[in-house]
Amino acid sequence: MQDGRVKWDSPVAVPRGATELERVTDVVAPPVVDGRLVCAVAYQGRVACFDAASGSAAWTRELSSWSGLAMDYRYVYAVDAAGNVNAFERDSGRSVWRQDKLAARSVSAPALLGKYLVVADFAGYSHYLNTEDGSFVAQLATDGARIAVSPLVAGEHLIIQTLAGNVFSIGLKQGAK
């Protein structure tokens, strides 16, 4: 920040609709950044990735989300408002896979733990997906209470907090990276 001026500004959601309620859009989570890409998602909006240096759109896809994003060296992962988990090629935005078996489970934002994409749900379960194809690898129960916040990754552990007031640390099996 050399002079305090905004370097670039790019919209993630463009309000549209006939009524004020239809035009509600909301950026729902912090963007994810990797050095050259900045990606964000909005409710009643889209998932969009921008060039970090110029702010020009690298790609955009229509997708309404209540949660947030995760990004690795290949894909950008987003949970849509219906609870479907989506993977997009990070450079082109091409849809790679979609896991629809978690629809209507109030799924959290995704988190990357080793080679797994993890989401948590309203019943206190964490679901572990293969990042290659979105297939289920594991499902772990906590205490049956709704997950309070999106899972956090701390080293090789996933931290989950439930509305029952419990915090869980879930580690990877040896060799599961």
From TrEMBL:
Domain Pyrrolo-quinoline quinone repeat per the UniProt entry, residue ranges: 2-99
InterPro entries to which the protein is assigned, alphabetical: PQQ_rpt_dom (IPR002372), Quinoprotein_ADH-like_sf (IPR011047), WD40/YVTN_repeat-like_dom_sf (IPR015943)
Transmembrane segments annotated in the record for this chain: none
Protein's name in the database: Pyrrolo-quinoline quinone repeat domain-containing protein
